[in-house]
């Protein structure tokens, strides 16, 4: 199991720690570093900044939002950075949810998410493959565009720039069982938002068709500390926000996933508190047991024991959210 460093997206401003952390992770032998985006900083620009200050570590987006860019634009970003970094890019994509897609990007959330995702990946693959002009008779991403408001003179085009790698890895962030199953068929890897090494049966059926070499790369917050309850607070804060605020009360993929993992009643309670404006209560309502099983928190000996659980399952890459060099170093030592 390889280790990756997950930096996420910026809060109020850029973090001065991201480049030093990425450089330290590279020195420690981490295989990859990952950036993200929500509705603030983008995923590709910070990754390019990191690329210029590292030499070996792979560069992943976890995730770049599909609604933010047309699939050809995303492929342009990926192939450009892949050239500049010497072939280090891992392209992680995610559909996001209705509130973000419609509220921030101003476009309709696809009625058929599986079809929209499949078309998006198809176009990206065509651009990177550069075997012929990109063309797709698609419902969501038709190329050339032939809609009723078009001019009718669109032309299928092939990338001027030759991609460095036609097989640049494409990973998908997916949560629903059908979406995960499709990911195993059309992508090179899967980016679970949260993963429990003791509940791998939740995903087992969806991963039946995963080919050899398929990447399973979940994120996990990590903290080497003596006080487990205190160490779990950032995990609970993340869960409270995602389960309570990253989606509508009637359509929240994160809450649905928590329910499938055995915490349905708790997920709905967290949602109600968050949507009522009682955010601190929502965070405290996240069960310690759930926060603990999807993270690596506690003294070194405890983390060592729990790390063995992660190694026994299908996880190929553990993407660690750890904002301190000490935790990064301990995990590298334990995973060597």
From TrEMBL:
Top-level taxon of origin: Bacteria
GO molecular function annotations of the record: oxidoreductase activity, acting on paired donors, with incorporation or reduction of molecular oxygen
Domain Luciferase-like: 16-315
The keyword Chaperone appears for this protein: no
CDD domains hit by this protein: Tetrahydromethanopterin_reductase
Key words, A-Z: Oxidoreductase
Pfam name, any one: Bac_luciferase
Matching SUPFAM superfamilies: Bacterial luciferase-like
Protein name: LLM class F420-dependent oxidoreductase
Organism: Streptomyces phaeolivaceus
């Amino acid at each position: 199991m390889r280790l990756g460093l997950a930096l996420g997206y910026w809060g109020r401003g850029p973090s001065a720690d991201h480049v030093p952390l990425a450089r330290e992770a590279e020195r420690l032998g981490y295989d990859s570093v990952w950036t993200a985006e929500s509705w603030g900083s983008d995923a590709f620009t910070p990754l390019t900044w990191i690329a210029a200050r590292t030499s070996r570590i792979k560069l992943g987006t976890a995730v770049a939002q599909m609604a933010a860019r047309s699939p050809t634009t995303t492929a342009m970003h990926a192939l450009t950075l892949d050239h500049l970094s010497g072939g280090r890019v891992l392209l992680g994509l995610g559909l996001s949810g209705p509130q973000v897609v419609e509220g921030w990007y101003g476009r309709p959330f696809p009625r058929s998410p599986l079809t929209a995702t499949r078309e998006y990946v198809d176009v990206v693959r065509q651009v990177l493959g550069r075997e012929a002009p990109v063309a797709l008779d698609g419902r969501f991403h038709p190329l050339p565009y032939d809609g009723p408001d078009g001019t009718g003179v669109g032309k299928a085009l092939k990338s001027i720039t030759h991609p460095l790698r036609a097989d640049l890895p494409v990973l998908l962030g997916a949560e629903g069982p059908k979406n995960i199953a499709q990911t195993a068929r059309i992508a090179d890897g899967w980016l679970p938002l949260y993963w429990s090494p003791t509940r791998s049966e939740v995903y087992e059926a969806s991963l039946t068709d995963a080919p050899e070499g398929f990447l399973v790369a979940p994120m996990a917050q990590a903290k080497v500390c003596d006080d487990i309850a205190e160490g779990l607070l950032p995990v609970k804060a993340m869960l409270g926000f995602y389960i309570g605020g990253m989606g509508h009360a009637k359509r929240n993929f994160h809450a649905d996933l928590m329910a499938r993992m055995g915490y349905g009643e708790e997920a709905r309670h967290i949602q109600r508190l968050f949507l009522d404006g009682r955010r601190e209560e929502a965070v405290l309502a996240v069960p310690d047991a759930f926060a603990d099983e999807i993270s690596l928190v506690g003294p070194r000996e405890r983390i060592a024991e729990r790390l063995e659980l992660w190694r026994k399952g299908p996880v190929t890459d553990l993407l660690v959210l750890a904002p301190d060099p000490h935790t990064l170093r301990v995990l590298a030592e334990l995973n060597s």
